[in-house]
Amino acid sequence: MTYGRRQFLRSSGAVLGVTALGGCAPLVQAGPADVLIVNGRVATLNPRQPEAAAIAIKGDTIVGVGSEAELNTFRGEKTRVIDAGHRTVIPGLNDAHTHFIRGGLTYTSEVRWDGVPSLAEGMRRVGEQARRTPPPHWVQVIGGWTWAQFAEKRFPTLEEINAATGDTPCMIMHLYDRAWLNRSAIRVLGWEREVPKLFGGFVERDAGGNPTGLVMSTTSLASLVAVWLRVPRLSPEEQVTSTRHFMREHNRLGVTSVIDAGGGGQNYPENYAAIAKLAADKLLTLRIGYELFAQAPGKELDNYLAWSKLVRIGEGNDYYRMIGAGEYVVYAAGDPANFAKDWVVAPPGVMESQFTAVTKHLVGLRWPFRQHTTFNSTASRVLDVLEQVSRDVPLKGLRWSLDHCETLSPKTLERVARLGGSINIQNRMSLDGEAFLSKYGAQAAADAPPVARIREMGIPLACGTDANRATSYNPWIGVHWLI
Question: CATH number for the domain including 447?
Answer without folding.
Answer: 3.20.20.140
